[in-house]
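Tokenised fold entry reproduced for everyone:
>
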Amino acid sequence: MDKHNSVGLAKTLSYFYRFTWRHNKKYPLYIVLSIALKAIQPFPNILIPKSIIDELLGGKSMEKLVMYTALLIGINLVISSLLSVCNHLLQFINMRTNKLLDFVIIGKAMEMDYEHVENAEILNLSKKATSSMKWGTWGMYGVTSKTVEIIAGIITLAGLGYVFSSVEWWITALILLFVIANMYYGAKLSDANHGFWERMSGYHRRFEYFRNILKDFRFGKDIRLYDAGGLILSRQRESIQYGRKMAGEWSSMNVKYNLFFNFLNVMQQMLLYGYFAAKVFVGTITVGSFTMYIAAASALKDSIQNVFGETMGLREQAKYLAEFVRFAELPDVKPRGHGALPAERDFVIEFRNVSFKYPGSEQMILKDFSMTIPFGQKLSVVGMNGAGKTTFIKLLTRLYDPTEGEILLNGVDIRTIDLAEYAKLFSVVFQDFAVFAFSMKENIQMTMGDEADKLREVVDKAGLTEVVGELEKGADTAVYKYFDEDGVEFSGGETQKIALARSLYKDAPVVVLDEPTAALDPIAEYEIYNRFNEIISGKTAVYISHRLSSCRFCDVIAVFHEGRLIQYGSHDELIRQPDGKYAEMFNAQAQYYVDEAMSV
């Protein structure tokens, strides 16, 4: 992924404005009302007090004093009440929008190309996208509030320009000079804050990883038995120390900038008060006008600073949110395909001159690989670790596309077939299969329907009937204790059976077992494979292993070595090739296959 594939300010803000409007059509109305109210809010407190003070020092009409005071209180009350309502409505909309944006991140993480899931740079981008909604001024709420402040501030400035039309130009220029200085250093502070956030993203990901290890009970046994707590805590302490150092630098930088800002503001106040006090002293303006101009000057300064500050803040916020847009609009690397599955359902899969290397790597994992898997064939793929077996499955199931060559389904390039439809062809149990903190029933069914009879059937076929019968809640028992204190931590063999039951429940025409039993001894692995082979009759089956327990009942064995298919044939054919890799592997494991060796 191109690190410099940045998203511009306009595109970022447009994305979020359109997203919010799409999910709440009244959003623009509340924005316009808030802008109008914010824009006029300073003027009652600038103009009306002038009349009150002049009346106190001049005419002293009680009737006018009461009227001016009531008018000031009434206008402020109406504006503040309406603003409070608008702010509440916008806050509700923005909270809802932030939640919907969370689902955008979750949805993208689930749907993006699998190669992104294994890419550290994309994982960092995902972390930035998530934290961008919490950094700065709270995601969409910050965008909305800054937009309101900027537009309202510009309107307010136009009104204040009219108020100052009778004042010497250099007073306005002086105010602008101080504001520009504030703006310049404010921009530098904004850039520095964003750089700090960039550096902290990787820290947060490391820190959360170590924290989650210490909290996750699945790591508890290894941590205790191998006394790994010290190692993990030392890594976490390193992360914390780095975080503290960064936070210290950030705090020191902000203190220096804030001291400078405060100095500029004090100097400006002293000059303005001195100038307008002198005007009162010589009788050029009234005391009421003095208060009006001081209030207007303060409002002018605040409005200019606010417009610029919020613009810089919006720019900074957009930098964070741009990471969200980059992740949400992360392009697919591989074509999704739109074609239908071939009408002929006796699927034949062909690898034709396939070579493959992982993104960012120059090493070919599979090299000029060709093989055909007829419908209903039981294929065993064997080879040592690193031979390319799991990569073969990732290509077969289209988690990745070939770097060179093509994979055909009944003669049709699988890249032209709709990806979701193609995925329905496979029930796969990977070596690192996932069991979720759902109920056992949900782990088996996933989103594939809720058929009680079918569930009982696959539970029985997977050898889980006795396990389910011993549970108080049966198949509704929670896996793990994350959300249910009555949850159960199943044994390794039982979780493997849950994963096998899941593949049976899907009832796909092609079943793949990618070393899900690698943690078992070869005899136990053979028993599970043999049982599974009996219950998937009539389906195409692919068994992956660096051990040979699946070979007895398979029609064909494919031997992988260093990314190449070096042998292909039945067990009887391959074992009679004494110099072949298969015979070498089989003889090395002979103590587990004595009966088979004697039958040859």
